[in-house]
Backbone:
């Protein structure tokens, strides 16, 4: 297994990007030069004073996706203030230090050939997708065409929209759905995805989905991917005390691999899952086996 | 190299330093070896091993509380056979001092586990988990009954010559009688304490946060109570004690040693600060140097009351 690097990372910048959301820039070269799209880091949200002990409250670190890696030195973290930890993190100022460790978890996979990739972020679930989009269009990594990378952001309203400019500068497609219709598609981002898939499904172009966001959204995306028979990778957020496989706290219910019933169609055998009461299930850890999971294996309750 | 002797002798068990990682907070070692070499530790106590693999409890399994956390993992583990086949070889290779924590539903199963594991090389000792608050059968029931504790220890003692630590529950009225039962049964030391039975409420959903309703509280929040219990047992029995309960840094470890702990286990701290066990070893070394102590063991029970 690869080493974990732990350091007191210097805050280089903290920028408000939308109502209640920020991008925190941390100098963490050991992690930045190794971390891959989909992986995450643990951040102790309370400022760390040099030579002083850790504060005990809030106690646990919080897991964060990497929004963007800059010059193999800097990690940009896109986050929303949701509780005691992120409230503290939002107070961190340039020059402060936060204890971090990583890289942690598994990675997104890249398409083997030219494909259309939908990257769907529900609110702050957009976080891992700049780094992924950048990797997908990198001629050395994902080898995809810019126009085939389509990022969909679901937001409550126009005040909750962030990072639009950065994605557009990158050259990938970026579309917005708002619950109240104050910008872009009116409705959930899942509705926007379905509309786009219906429009492209007769074009015979291979398509895949990556998604991250609130559980109800992920559940619907998972169903959509099943309906359209598309590969789908989902990044799961869970209560995660340790982040590196020692506490067993971040259990995720999954189907035991290879179970279900087989269906032959167009000379292709596909494995369909049986209802949750019938198939053997087990618990995987979001921090070690994930955070990126194949949607087919996940059990939604 | 420092000339301070950090080694401790817990009954027949000799450790290079008094800092172990606690059961259930170190898995089977591979993960923490990504942070530091396992042979730096006094010992690694494995996640509880049961006769058969266990899936563990449904989520939510964990929740943070003020200066602490609750967990209800439910002894998820690979079972003794897979442990011997797939996990132990790594630990042997890493040259870790391995204490295997064992748990069971039936009293006689502890002895079977010890018998099976005693056939393997590379095990320094056993820790008997007679105190898990998160499993329906066995677990806490055993840990709150002095007779059961003595019977479990006696059964294991018959099967092994390896050192035995018995990890006790703090969820009892009289911790001294539980420790006495373990020592009378043939335990070489007691590990004090496991987590405190606790719960957390989600007011929005009017539901408990944890799927199993209750869980075990750990972290700095429990440290003062753990210290008190160790002090009570040390005062009454003067037996070897391994102190556990919210130890975050070397200062905390010193407090545990002064009230009577011969060694300590670091648990929740490894979630917060993966390097915590190493920092504690370093901190104890520099304390001993500053105080001009040749042997750290001299601190044990040194509290002036």
Residues:
């Amino acid at each position: 297994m690869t080493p974990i690097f732990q350091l007191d990372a210097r805050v280089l910048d903290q920028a408000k990007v939308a109502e209640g959301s920020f991008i925190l820039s941390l100098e963490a070269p050991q992690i930045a030069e190794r971390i891959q799209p989909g992986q995450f880091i643990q951040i102790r949200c309370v400022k760390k004073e040099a030579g002083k002990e850790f504060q005990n409250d809030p106690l646990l670190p919080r897991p964060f996706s990497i929004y963007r890696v800059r010059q193999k030195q800097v990690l940009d973290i896109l986050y929303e203030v949701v509780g005691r930890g992120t409230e503290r993190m939002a107070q961190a100022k340039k020059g402060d230090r936060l204890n971090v460790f990583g890289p942690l978890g598994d990675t997104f996979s890249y398409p083997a050939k030219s494909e259309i990739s939908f990257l769907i972020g529900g609110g702050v679930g957009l976080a891992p997708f700049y780094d992924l989009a950048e990797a997908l269009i990198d001629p050395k990594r994902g080898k995809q065409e810019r126009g085939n990378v389509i990022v969909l952001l679901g937001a409550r309203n126009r005040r909750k929209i962030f990072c639009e400019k950065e994605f557009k500068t990158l050259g990938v497609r970026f579309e917005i759905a708002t619950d109240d219709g104050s910008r872009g598609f009116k409705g959930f981002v899942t509705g926007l995805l379905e509309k786009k898939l219906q429009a492209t499904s007769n074009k015979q172009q291979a398509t895949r989905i990556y998604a991250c966001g609130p559980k109800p959204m992920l559940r619907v995306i998972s169903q959509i991917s099943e309906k359209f028979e598309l590969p789908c990778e989902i990044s799961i957020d869970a209560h995660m005390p340790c982040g590196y496989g020692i506490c067993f706290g971040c259990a995720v219910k999954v189907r035991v691999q290879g179970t279900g019933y087989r269906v032959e169609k167009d000379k292709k055998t596909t494995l369909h899952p049986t209802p949750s009461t019938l198939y053997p299930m087990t618990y995987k850890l979001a921090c070690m086996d994930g955070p990126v999971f194949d949607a087919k294996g996940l059990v939604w309750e | 190299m420092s000339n301070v002797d950090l080694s401790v002798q817990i009954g027949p068990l000799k450790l290079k330093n008094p800092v172990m990682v606690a059961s259930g907070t170190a898995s089977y070692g591979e993960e923490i070896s990504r942070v530091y070499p396992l042979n730096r530790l006094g010992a690694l106590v494995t996640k509880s091993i049961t006769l058969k693999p266990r899936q563990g409890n449904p989520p939510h399994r964990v929740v943070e509380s003020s200066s602490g956390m609750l967990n209800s993992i439910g002894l998820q583990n690979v079972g003794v056979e897979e442990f011997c086949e797939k996990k132990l070889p790594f630990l042997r290779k890493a040259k870790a001092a391995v204490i295997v924590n064992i748990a069971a539903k039936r009293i006689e199963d502890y002895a079977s586990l010890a018998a099976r594991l005693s056939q393997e090389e590379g095990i320094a000792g056993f820790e008997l988990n007679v105190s898990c608050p998160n499993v329906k059968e066995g677990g806490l029931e055993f840990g709150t009954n002095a007779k059961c504790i003595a019977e479990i220890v006696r059964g294991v003692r018959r099967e092994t010559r390896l050192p035995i630590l018995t990890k006790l529950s703090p969820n009892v009225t009289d911790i001294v009688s539980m420790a006495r039962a373990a020592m009378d049964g043939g335990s070489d030391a007691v590990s004090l304490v496991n987590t405190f039975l606790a719960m957390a409420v989600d007011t929005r959903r009017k539901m408990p946060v944890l799927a199993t309703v209750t869980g075990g509280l750990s972290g700095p929040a429990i440290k003062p109570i753990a210290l008190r219990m160790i002090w009570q047992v040390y005062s009454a029995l003067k037996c070897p004690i391994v102190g556990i309960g919210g130890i975050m840094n070397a200062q905390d470890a010193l407090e545990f040693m002064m009230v009577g702990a011969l060694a300590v286990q670091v648990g929740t701290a490894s979630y917060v600060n993966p390097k915590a066990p190493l920092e504690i070893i370093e901190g104890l070394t520099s304390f001993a140097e500053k105080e001009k102590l040749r042997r750290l063991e001299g601190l044990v029970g040194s509290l002036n009351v």
